[in-house]
Amino acid sequence: MLAQLIYETTDTEFADRAIEALRAADVPCYRTGHGYTAEAQHMGRGFSEDQVCLYIERDTDWARANEILIGLGAVTERPLPPRWVLVLAAALLAMLSWWFATAYR
């Protein structure tokens, strides 16, 4: 079974707290990467080199690990609005554009 990436961050302190909490909950896990710290002698050359990646070893632990990370203050992504909202917004924008184009010739 392959390890599963569950979170990426540049905050090494958060990563350490997360690994500690996951292990306390008996979720086998590990981290890779250096992260970003103000005291670092050699900063990463790019965004990916400053990342700390958190992995869990059993995919069956994903839901529990996600709950733990959110409980610690992990950033979550907001879902996009429903497709009909996006279509309606695009239609309104198209109608407004047409109206401006014909009204101000």
Largest sheet: 3 strands, antiparallel
Distance between the termini: 65 Å
Q: Which class do the helix and strand fractions yield?
A: alpha+beta
In CATH, what is the class?
A: Alpha Beta
Low-confidence runs: none
Mean pLDDT: 84
In the sheet with the most strands, the strands line up as 1-3-2
Helix content: 40-55%
Number of strands: 3
Determine the CATH topology: Alpha-Beta Plaits
Share of residues in strands: 5-15%
Please tell me the CATH architecture by its name.
2-Layer Sandwich
What is the count of structural domains? Answer: 1
What is the approximate shape? Answer: elongated
As a whole number of angstroms, the C-alpha radius of gyration is 22 Å
Tell me the series of helices and strands, N- to C-terminal.
EHEEHH
Number of helices: 3
CATH superfamily: UreE, C-terminal domain
Task: Offer a quick outline of the entry.
This protein is 42% helix and 14% strand. By secondary structure, it is an alpha+beta fold.
